[in-house]
From TrEMBL:
<dbReference type="InterPro" id="IPR050194">
    <property type="entry name" value="Glycosyltransferase_grp1"/>
</dbReference>
<dbReference type="InterPro" id="IPR028098">
    <property type="entry name" value="Glyco_trans_4-like_N"/>
</dbReference>
<dbReference type="Pfam" id="PF13439">
    <property type="entry name" value="Glyco_transf_4"/>
</dbReference>
<dbReference type="Pfam" id="PF00534">
    <property type="entry name" value="Glycos_transf_1"/>
</dbReference>
<dbReference type="InterPro" id="IPR001296">
    <property type="entry name" value="Glyco_trans_1"/>
</dbReference>
<protein>
    <recommendedName>
        <fullName>Glycosyl transferase family 1 domain-containing protein</fullName>
    </recommendedName>
</protein>
<feature type="domain" description="Glycosyltransferase subfamily 4-like N-terminal">
    <location>
        <begin position="52"/>
        <end position="181"/>
    </location>
</feature>
<dbReference type="GO" id="GO:0016757">
    <property type="term" value="F:glycosyltransferase activity"/>
</dbReference>
<feature type="domain" description="Glycosyl transferase family 1">
    <location>
        <begin position="201"/>
        <end position="352"/>
    </location>
</feature>
Length: 381
């Protein structure tokens, strides 16, 4: 099987990155894997074609502006298709990359598998921006024409079936691969974070991209009520993104500078999961929410809004605490419960660790991924 993938992950040009290592592993189950990656030249990085292994190849789409992406991509992919017998096209999203994949599919008569990593059917997704509304309709049009759709959660799969009436035979649920060995490599004491921040008796942790859909402001605003009753509670927020300045300004406005700490993104969050008392995810929508799974695997108490794999892996009052999306009052109550009810928190943490058995290892993941590709090809035939 020879695969052509359309991606935006520039970490593929770093042979030592986790994503590159994963693609090398994926290459071991097929004849060849060709990956085209979008890159704007004004990113100050001009990439060249490179081989990650003897059968995994990465090709940059170097464009001065996004407007020329499409034509640059067609030129690169035409070269790949001319030199190689490609069996299937896959795209990292079901939006702009999906459109490009569909165009190549139609021109070269090849099966197409789209990946859906975002909960595009969440009403919060469409309400967020005009751009998202446009993407919603693009995705709806594309998934009805794809031969296979890989989704990362049952929430997305159910929505595609029930709302867009997609045939279940074309939907393949395969979660995000989690590097369990890397996650469990932490050798720090569970007290290290409080030793670093001795002003905090209880530490809440958040880790995500600073963007609108993550709704980090909801947790920050909940801290106003929390610190009135428990002044020595801290919220450590790890991440980067366009909304960082807005969030820092919100902290100052609410006079929470002594209780909220911002840290730059960490590739391995294991030490922080281990050192905090509870992990918070307050997103408006998620496709999967890998940090929830990672935190649970580390035996962390998780408080999350009802998004992503919540209801599938994280179950309210069984192995974590779940609150409605955007409900600040309920989030504040859950945070208070985490502080005051230590016995309940301990019980939820002990049950959370058991999800380790549900997380796919690399071998299982690769086998399942290959199966989705084979079924997509069969759907085309």
């Amino acid at each position: 099987m020879n695969i052509l993938t359309i991606s935006v992950d520039r970490k593929l040009f770093d042979s030592g990155s986790d994503v590159s290592k994963r693609m090398i592993a994926c290459g071991g189950m097929v004849d060849s894997w060709h990956i085209v990656v979008f890159n704007v030249k004004n990113n100050k990085q001009f990439y060249k074609d490179q081989s990650l292994s003897n059968n995994v190849f990465v090709y940059p789409i170097n464009s001065l502006v996004k407007a020329t992406y499409f034509f640059s991509a067609l030129r690169v992919m035409s070269r790949i298709l001319y030199k190689n017998k490609i069996d299937i096209i896959t795209t990292q999203d079901s939006f702009e990359l999906g459109l490009l994949g569909w165009w190549v599919r139609m021109r070269h008569h090849l099966p197409l598998q789209l990946q859906v990593h975002t909960d595009i059917l969440s009403p919060y997704y469409r309400k967020e921006s005009l751009h998202n509304r446009l993407r919603y309709f693009i995705a709806m049009w594309l998934v009805k024409r794809a031969n296979g759709i890989r989704v990362v959660s049952s929430r997305i799969a159910s929505s595609l079936i029930n709302k867009w009436h997609i045939d279940s035979s074309r939907i393949f649920q395969l979660p995000v691969l989690i590097d369990s060995d890397k996650l469990m490599s932490s050798d720090r004491s569970s007290n290290w974070l409080k030793d670093k921040y001795p002003q905090f008796e209880h530490i809440f942790l958040m880790a995500s991209r600073f963007s609108k859909e993550k709704n980090i402001a909801l947790a920050i605003e909940s801290m106003v009520t929390i610190v009135k009753e428990c002044p020595r509670v801290g919220l450590i927020i790890i991440g980067e993104g366009l909304e960082k300045g807005l969030l820092e300004s919100l902290v100052k406005k609410l006079l929470l500078e002594d209780n909220v700490v911002f840290l730059s993104w960490k590739e391995n969050l294991a030490d922080y999961y281990k050192g905090a008392d509870a992990f918070i995810l307050s997103s408006n929508y998620e496709g999967y929410a890998m940090t929830i799974v990672e935190a649970m695997m580390m035996g962390q108490l998780v408080i999350a809004t009802d998004v992503g794999i919540v209801g599938e892996i994280l179950i309210n009052m069984e192995n974590g605490l779940v609150v409605p999306v955007g409900d600040q009052k309920k989030l504040t109550e859950a945070m208070n419960t985490a502080i005051s009810n230590k016995e309940l928190g301990k019980q939820l943490q002990e049950r959370a660790i058991s999800i380790k058995s549900k997380v796919l290892g690399e071998k299982e993941f690769l086998e399942s991924y290959k199966e989705t590709l084979e079924k997509t090809i069969k759907n085309y035939d």
